[in-house]
Amino acid sequence: MITSDDGLPPRLGSLTFHGPLSEERAERLLRRIVASGPADVLDIGCGWGELLLRVLDAVPGAKGTGIDINAEDLARGRALAAERGLADRAVFVEESARGTERGPVDAILCLGASQALCDPELPHDPAEALRELRRLVRPGGVVVLGEGFWERTPTAAELAAMWPGASTGDHFPLGELVDLAIGAGFRPAWIETAGRDEWEAFESGYRYDTELWLAAHPDHPLAEETRERVDRQRSGWLKGYRNVLGIAYLTLVATA
């Protein structure tokens, strides 16, 4: 097994996308973005920018910028861009997306990262994020937004098992989320949601390399804190947001 400098397995090394997104759905999203013929693409909270790179590969001449605050993910994105011959058209920048002036552009990707557009001192506000996305995209441009929504109202026990401070106000039902997008100046061209298989592949893949490492290195100096972290993550999913929290993939077109 490949390990990092601290002896731990690489972060998220078994994931293609940093979210519950299958190859089949990614291909459908890609086709809709490519059909709009974007000249420039902005990926907010890009991670390693897998979908961004696929867009650039499919649209000759298009240029893309990925912004994130995780240096390790950005380095992975630059390496992938170089491997695919896209280093001259893809830029990965370590910076906050809050108030960014990297628009307007023809297309925006924001997959599970809308919190990067909101005030970190306040509760997450999808309405604010949608207004920011509208500011950053040209009229007629396309935004692909991956955003959480409640499939049903979580119970008190489920909330307690989720992330610290989880509350019913953290997300909206899907219908209300789409209404917010319309109110921000978009038309919802396509609405789809992640399925159980996508969630299970993501959640298991998120911890897979680390679980294998823990099984092989139970007495490593970092094993106890690593085991506590992944056990807490898994419990949050299985006892908290599994079949409660959904992810919507909204293909939004900016109105004139």
UniProtKB/TrEMBL annotation:
Please indicate which superkingdom the organism of origin belongs to: Bacteria
Q: Does the keyword Transferase apply?
A: yes
Domain (Methyltransferase type) ranges: 42-143
Q: Which InterPro entries match?
A: Methyltransf_12 (IPR013217), Methyltransf_Superfamily (IPR050508), SAM-dependent_MTases_sf (IPR029063)
Provide the alphabetized UniProt keywords: Methyltransferase, Transferase
Fetch the Pfam families from UniProt.
Answer: Methyltransf_12 (PF08242)
Write out the GO biological process terms: methylation
Q: Which GO terms describe its molecular function?
A: methyltransferase activity
Tell me the protein's name: SAM-dependent methyltransferase
- Taxonomic lineage: Bacteria, Bacillati, Actinomycetota, Actinomycetes, Kitasatosporales
